[in-house]
Amino acid sequence: MKGNFTESFMKGIFLICAVTSIIAILLMCIFIFAGGIPFIQEYGFKNFLLGTEWKPSNIPQSFGILPMILGSIYVTLGAVIIGVPIGLLTAIYLAKFSSKRLYRFLKPGINLMAGIPSIVYGFFALVVIVPIIRDVFGGTGMNVITASLLLGIMILPTVISMSEAAIRAVPNSYYEGSIALGATHEKSIFSVVVPAAKSGIISSIILAIGRAIGETMAVILVAGNQARMPVGITKGVRTLTTNIVIEMAYAADAHREALIATAAVLFVFILIINGAFLVVKRRTNLE
Amino acid sequence: MSRLLKSVVKLSAYITFGVLFFIIGYILVRGIPNLSPSLFHLEYTTENVSLFPAMITTLMLVFLTLIIATPIGVFTGFYLVEYAKKGNRLVEVIRIATETLSGIPSIVYGLFGMLFFVVYLNFQYSLLAGTLTVGIMVLPLIIRATEEALLSVDDSLREGSFALGAGMLYTIFKIVLPSAMPGILSGVILSIGRIVGETAALMFTLGTATKIPEGLFSSGRTLALHMYILSTEGMHINESYATGVILLAVVLIINYVSTLLSNKLAKGSNDE
């Protein structure tokens, strides 16, 4: 009897633990949206999302976050342009070109890259990339290009490890068939194996986009953070994430609510990206 | 054409690993000479810019977070793998929840932590608020590692245990858990890395006080936060480098250990 009680008691405990993540995500939705949506309603959905002026200290205040939405899109796009080709090709290298012995050193290297804290990346960009960009393009060196380079580096491990896994998951018979038809090693990989790993590669890119759009502390150090409509890739921008961190410390009242609303918008972006990721992943599993 | 493709592939790999080694090398070379004894003073002052309190705070945060998140994460893994039946709706929802959690940016965690723990539950900027916030953050990591580790344990072990009349709990704790341990541990270790490197989620939950927290309800700053604040102030670049060295050292150790563990796990499953 006692044994049975312990069994079902512990099962209950495990169940409660398992539900914790659901509760956590629900609480997050509730608190972020309850904090943000009333403000958006009051200020006007269109004014908030499409407003081109963010001037919380003006009278009257203006809270348009279009500059930050565009800022986030710019640097994320830049990161994808830089990080995805290099990441994908490195994944191909790891899966199909590197020797086993070399791989034993390189693979932990990618894990290490994923483990380096974002503040270290940001600091590195601040002391190394910013001066280079300053010399080349003038200005402060803190602009869209710098932030894109930094994020491009930061998304590499995500792109690499997931794409590599996807490429490795392609049955060897694909490759062998192509070789048997007379194609070279490279041709077989690029025209047969990689296309077959398409959905895995796409999900790695989606995940990388999520990483880039959500990155905060590293971007603050190098993006310039001017809250105005982006004026070109050699000028500074502010992203949704950095907008929150920079002003949260001193914001009050409507300003504070506007920042929470900014987080709500970011949250929606992330939920959409996550949703896309889950859909692609599910489709991959079904194939 | 083949040649060109091959060189492009190789070039990309060189770039990736070149960047990695350059970042690590640069921080180490510039930072190690700056690791002066005054940085390890017991108390932070604007003169010594000691990182010692931040080190202790980081340790406290890691310890507390793991104490809370590890059992919850591991037990979730138990439920998902050992108890739930295939096609269970709840399992589906839990999976979606954990995957969503792992995709949420740390700043959103930070803001949630501020709204919920700091303001709503009135914890103020405190060790407790920081712990709970990053605790939720590392939960998906631990859950996934546990799940994978449990799934890799051969079913014959479980069947053998049941056949000998052992109950579910006994089987899980005495038979399955020991074989799954390396995998679970490597998840826990990766979580340590995540906690140590975290900044955005802690800024508005743990706060940025320079002292070692006196209790659960007082504020502090972790090494990563310390480095962020030094970098934005721009007055103490050398100390930033030094902090970077310590962070990198932690990350290197963590990765080394987790690689060892996963090799051990791979070996273990080959033996069977």
Describe this structure in words.
The complex is a heterodimer of chains A (about 290) and B (about 270). Chain A is about 80% helix and about 0% strand. Chain A has twelve helices and two strands, in the order H-H-E-E-H-H-H-H-H-H-H-H-H-H. In chain A, strands 1-2 form a two-stranded antiparallel ribbon. Chain A is globular. The mean pLDDT of chain A is about 90. Chain B has a single domain (about 50-270), classed as MetI-like (MetI-like fold, Orthogonal Bundle), CATH 1.10.3720.10. Helices cover about 75% and strands about 0% of the residues of chain B. Chain B is globular and about 70 Å long. Chain B has helices at about 1-30, 50-85, 90-105, 105-120, 125-150, 155-165, 170-195, 200-205, 225-235, 235-270. Chain B contains ten helices and no strands. With about 270 residues, chain B is mainly α. Classes of the chains: A mainly alpha (about 290), B mainly alpha (about 270).
Q: What is the mean pLDDT of chain B? A: 90
User: What coarse outline of chain A follows from CA principal-axis ratios?
Assistant: globular
What is the N-to-C order of secondary-structure elements of chain A (H for helix, E for strand)? HHEEHHHHHHHHHH
Percent strand of chain A: under 5%
Order of helices and strands of chain B: HHHHHHHHHH
CATH class of the largest domain in chain A: Mainly Alpha
Segments of chain A where pLDDT lies below 50 for 5+ residues? none
Q: What percentage of residues of chain B falls in helices of 4 or more residues?
A: over 70%
Low-confidence stretches of chain B: none
Mean pLDDT of chain A: 92
Structural class based on helices, strands and sheet pairing of chain A: mainly alpha
CATH architecture of chain B: Orthogonal Bundle
| Contiguous helical run count of chain A | 12
